[in-house]
Amino acid sequence: MSATAVLMSTSARLRDRRVHLERRATASRAVRGSLVSLAGLIGCPAENQTGEEVGRVVDVVARLYGSDPYPPVTGLVIRIGRRRTFLTADAVEKVHAKGVTLSTARVDLREYERRPGEVLLARDVLDHQLVDVDGVQVTRAADLYLAPLVDRVVLVGVDVSLPTLLRRLGPRRWQVRPTPERVLDWQAVAPFGQDATDGPAEVRLRASRSALHRLRPADLADLLEDLGRGERQQLLGWLEPGQAADALEEMEPPELESLLREAPLEHAARLVDEMEPDEAVDALRDLNSEEREQLLDRMPRGEAAELRGLLAHREGTAGGAMTTLVVTVRREQTVAEVRGELAARAEHRSEIDAVAVVDGDGRLIRDIALFDLAVADDTASVGDLADWLAQFGRPVTVGADARIAEVAQLLVAARVSSLLVVDESGRPLGRILADDVLDSLLPERGRLHFRRILQ
């Protein structure tokens, strides 16, 4: 892609994003007019009240992971001779494009030592990876913008544009110029940098979770694939196991394989255990036998046994691609009762598109699509509904050893989105979904994930 195309694409995304930032600080004309470029500020003079240079700005310290929507600047690190010393925010009268003006003549000349909870914006954030929540992408901070807000200086925005990187390579007079038309409001990003603060973990988690909780699993999967090894393990640590597992199910197989190998064994086992059985089996197949057993040994016994049973089926067969999540009901149950059971399994909505009616011995009588349940009368029995559907022919099923190509042909012929996998006696073993069939037939094109498309 040409540089012009990149610039045009970036500008278009930023224009579209402005509609989401109307209520944020950077939407204020007054704030945008008072922005100070962090990249331009580094190296600028720190002057006392009489205009004499005391030292040079080395970095800006902020409370990045507190509860404030815009991190407040808590002080500056300035170089005086060969020393790096710390000035509290109270000692700074004004921060402007050409430097800072101090409000006191007293300066503590002790060498600066970083304290728990302190984040150095130039060292820890500038040029580091960030997650743009509005744009749902991983990017890098080309510049950070400070501005006075109420009675203090705060971090209000981040610039991720290519022109800003070029500006920083230009003459000094260019470096100090902020470009407010390209600023992303700080509330739209979540920083990554596990070494950015020595503060307690719960302080870091509060701000980052609040920015990321509204992302969908497919969006989180895209972010995980774009992040580096350390950053994506940090992101996984911020997510609840179920939310993380949903994201893992949407990842490309090579990326998921790498992620599981990178993660601590206990954490990786917990994530795989939270995944849907068919997705978990796909992930485990990509690992070698030793890695696979290490994860299975760390899972609850029942879940591990279920996955081992699925792994025993050959890859490329219905048994190897099915999920064991099958909702079975009895003839005497009412439609209303079945709907109640489905409501209790709402977290598995993407894996359930029908219910299996079974007899007293567990053998299949009928596979009823959710649409037929939705339009049926609440008081009707499932048995009556199954008998009425019998006029359209016998339920289409496959054996566990059926090849995926055969399953695909049956899916097309029956015009359904899933098929039950049954044993020799006609008892349901699992269900194979259309997206699993496509994933098996088109591995070279990656996982298509119907759920991502539908979302």
Automatic annotation (TrEMBL):
<dbReference type="InterPro" id="IPR038076">
    <property type="entry name" value="MgtE_N_sf"/>
</dbReference>
<dbReference type="Pfam" id="PF00571">
    <property type="entry name" value="CBS"/>
</dbReference>
<protein>
    <submittedName>
        <fullName>CBS domain-containing protein</fullName>
    </submittedName>
</protein>
<dbReference type="InterPro" id="IPR006669">
    <property type="entry name" value="MgtE_transporter"/>
</dbReference>
<dbReference type="InterPro" id="IPR006668">
    <property type="entry name" value="Mg_transptr_MgtE_intracell_dom"/>
</dbReference>
<dbReference type="InterPro" id="IPR046342">
    <property type="entry name" value="CBS_dom_sf"/>
</dbReference>
<feature type="domain" description="CBS">
    <location>
        <begin position="389"/>
        <end position="448"/>
    </location>
</feature>
<keyword id="KW-0129">CBS domain</keyword>
<dbReference type="Pfam" id="PF03448">
    <property type="entry name" value="MgtE_N"/>
</dbReference>
<dbReference type="InterPro" id="IPR000644">
    <property type="entry name" value="CBS_dom"/>
</dbReference>
